[in-house]
Every structure is written in structure tokens, then in C-alpha cells.
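stage 2 :: seqdesign
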């Protein structure tokens, strides 16, 4: 197996690992307020998040940035909590460009935090590698493919529920954002650094 495939699979596996469900929960909470017809907004939002976590993933893995892991692990559910609250308070999906730029900037900032979480895992498995750039790139591609898979599955299920079971989009948002809110609150209490 090539280096690219090895680290790509590690990135995919890291996203698909239900032990690290906090990242899956963040992605679902991030897009819960949107429907499939908002795919351009979703794409920009997920891309902003990707840019953020890619940046800190690279910088932290190359040991140019470090953060206390206890604080990073605490801040990850904080990002879910804040995203959930924003979704719950949001009544519509048509807002000004300024509002969307704010959401994209927030997703980018939250991505920086999540990237630090990924880097801890990646740094531990890269200890024997001489050149880090290609493995880091491959791992990041795996993470992105995993995120796109999560987004695709979630949007497809959303279409089925809204079209065939007549679930109201607001109720869909409230259900998943409420779940993100509740789980993140528990995680924040469990991970609070003392």
C-alpha cells in the first residue's frame, strides 16, 4: 500500500471512528439548518471549516503550533454547542451576505480548533516518518472525503424525511441542533480542564 493510500485511509478511518463522534456531530450540527437546495452555502461552509482545520493540522503536526490537549478537547464540544445555539436561534436560511460571511468565518475559526484535535492523533502516528508534508496532505484528503460522505448521507436522509415523511425543515434543524446542544453540553462538563 502506498504512503498516500495509507494516510488517506487513516484520515477516513479517523472521521468514521465512532469513538471520535464529536467531529461527526459537529459536521451534522453545522449543516442541520440547511436543506439540499442550499448546497452552495453548505459547500462554502464546509470548505471554510476545512481550510481552518487543514491549516492547524499542518502547523501543529509540523510542531509549529502547540496547544494544551485538555483545552483542545474541551473547546471541540464548545464549537458544537455554539453552532447548535446559532442554529436553534436561526429562523430562516435567507440572510444577507454579511450574515453568511460571519457564519463562514466562524466555521473557519472552529476548524482551527478541530485541526488541533486531529493533529494530536496524526503526530502520534507520524513519529517514524522522515517527510511529513505528503502524509499530512494524504491524511487531510482522507478527512475531507469522510466529511463529504457525512454531508452527503445527512442531506440524502434529510431529503427523504422532508419529501416523503413531510418533516418540517425547522423541526429537522431543531432535532439535530438540539441533539448537538445536549451532547456537547455533556462533553463540555466531562472534558472541562481542571
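stage 2 :: out
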Amino acid at each position: 500500500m502506498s504512503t498516500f493510500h495509507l494516510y488517506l485511509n487513516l484520515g477516513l478511518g479517523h472521521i468514521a471512528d465512532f469513538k471520535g463522534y464529536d467531529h461527526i456531530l459537529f459536521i451534522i450540527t453545522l449543516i442541520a439548518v440547511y436543506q439540499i437546495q442550499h448546497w452552495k452555502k453548505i459547500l462554502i461552509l464546509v470548505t471554510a471549516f476545512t481550510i481552518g482545520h487543514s491549516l492547524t493540522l499542518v502547523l501543529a503536526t509540523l510542531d509549529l503550533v502547540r496547544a494544551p490537549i485538555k483545552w483542545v478537547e474541551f473547546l471541540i464540544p464548545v464549537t458544537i454547542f455554539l453552532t447548535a445555539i446559532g442554529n436553534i436561534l436561526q429562523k430562516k436560511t435567507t440572510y444577507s451576505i454579511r450574515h453568511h460571511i460571519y457564519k463562514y468565518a466562524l466555521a473557519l475559526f472552529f476548524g482551527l480548533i478541530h485541526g488541533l484535535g486531529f493533529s494530536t492523533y496524526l503526530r502520534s502516528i507520524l513519529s517514524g516518518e522522515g517527510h511529513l508534508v505528503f502524509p499530512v496532505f494524504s491524511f487531510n484528503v482522507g478527512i475531507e472525503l469522510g466529511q463529504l460522505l457525512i454531508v452527503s448521507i445527512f442531506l440524502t436522509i434529510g431529503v427523504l424525511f422532508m419529501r416523503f415523511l413531510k418533516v418540517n425543515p425547522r423541526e429537522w434543524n431543531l432535532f439535530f441542533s438540539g441533539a448537538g446542544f445536549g451532547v456537547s453540553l455533556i462533553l463540555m462538563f466531562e472534558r472541562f480542564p481542571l
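stage 3 :: structure notes
- The mean pLDDT is 89.
- The helical segments are 3-16, 21-31, 39-61, 69-89, 97-125, 133-164, 169-191.
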